[in-house]
Design brief:
This protein is α+β, with helices and mostly antiparallel strands. Helix content is 15%, strand content 16%. It has two domains: 55 residues, no CATH class; 42 residues, no CATH class. It is built from two helices and four strands. It is globular.
């Protein structure tokens, strides 16, 4: 089975958050909903452009899915495609999936 994921070339990434905005638009996400995120670690000033990109890794055995306490689960994995998704309407924002 083909495993999907998002690849980020950190040599070319400037931390502009365009990927974050595009993902939100394509997936119809609201103001505080994210599937990928760029986190700035301190002031966003040159030459110390310190940032971290955080994305779903589409794991074969997602720990986030197992950790989700919601019934039915807010995080699911499609058995055919293997794609891990979050159903925002079920998510309570408890944070168990990111611990």
């Amino acid at each position: 089975m083909t495993r999907l994921g998002l690849s980020i070339d950190l040599e070319r990434c400037t931390g502009c958050k365009s990927c974050e905005a595009a993902c939100k638009q394509v997936n119809g996400l609201g103001p505080h909903e994210y599937r990928n995120k760029v986190l700035w670690l301190g002031a966003a000033e040159a030459p110390a452009l310190d940032f971290l990109t955080v994305t779903c890794q589409q794991c074969a055995r997602p720990a986030c899915l197992r950790a989700c306490p919601v019934v039915p689960k807010a995080i699911t994995k499609d058995p055919e495609s293997g794609v891990v998704t979050v159903t925002e309407s079920r998510c309570t924002g408890c944070g168990e999936c990111v611990l």
